[in-house]
Specification:
With 218 residues, the protein is an all-alpha fold. Helix content is 78%, strand content 0%. It contains 11 helices and no strands. Helix 5 packs antiparallel against helix 6. It is globular, with a radius of gyration of 19 Å.
Length: 218
């Protein structure tokens, strides 16, 4: 039985999703109409602020919407905006990080085999966001850290061409992961590097992990 409170909550959810879809369409129209630039990012940021004062939370709704629609190209556009225009702190850091962990989970489990090229670019964007915002990891509790390392473990098992003359967003993403491992703290970092990357199929990745271990043990 639907109670009045449940009905109101359902209406609020529908209204919110409708608004997010409208905002998403506006952003896509802006991206189609202009070349990528600082000015374009400023216009998009202004649109997001007009819709919601808590723009960091609105951008998470945009991530959810495009993931739900399986529109990974648009998802990557939103991740690019998240990377380019926002600084995070405190409670917002935790919310952003949790949503990025959820996004990694869905991308790997549901979308990677279908759309490898765009999903692997998503990995690069997400771990670049983590790399430039250490607090996104430092604000996580132990369960959330474990959830993120599970996603890293899954990504470390994905294969790509070892021909370095070919572009590989997945390889770049893995290099980003290796570079940020010590944000997890020394003990957790060593587990990640030794368990997932010193045993990697690509000798280049093994070397990167070895260098990172030596650098932080000096």
């Amino acid at each position: 039985m639907v109670t009045f409170c449940n009905y109101i909550n359902m209406l609020d959810t529908i209204l919110k999703m409708t608004n997010i879809q409208e905002l998403n369409n506006k952003i896509k129209d802006l991206q189609k109409s202009k070349a990528y630039s600082v000015e374009l990012l400023e216009e998009i940021e202004s649109e997001i602020k007009n819709w919601n004062k808590n723009e960091e939370l609105t951008i998470l709704d945009l991530i959810k919407l495009n993931l739900f629609r399986s529109d990974i190209k648009s998802l990557n556009s939103i991740l690019g905006i998240l990377y380019s225009t926002y600084n995070f702190d405190g409670e917002i850091e935790e919310k952003v990080s949790i949503e990025l962990i959820n996004t990694l989970n869905i991308l790997t489990d549901t979308h990677h085999e279908i759309d490898k090229q765009n999903v692997e670019y998503s990995y690069y964007l997400i771990f670049d966001i983590y790399f430039h915002n250490p607090g996104l990891i430092e604000e996580l509790n132990s369960k959330q850290v474990n959830d993120l390392t599970k996603e890293i473990k899954k990504i470390s098992k994905l294969e790509y061409s070892i021909d370095k003359s070919k572009d590989s967003d997945l390889l770049i993403a893995i290099q980003k992961i290796i570079d940020l491992t010590y944000y997890f703290g020394k003990d957790k970092a060593e587990v990640i590097l030794k368990s997932y990357f010193l045993t990697h199929f690509d000798d280049f990745v093994k070397d990167c992990a070895e260098i990172e271990l030596k650098r932080n043990c000096a």
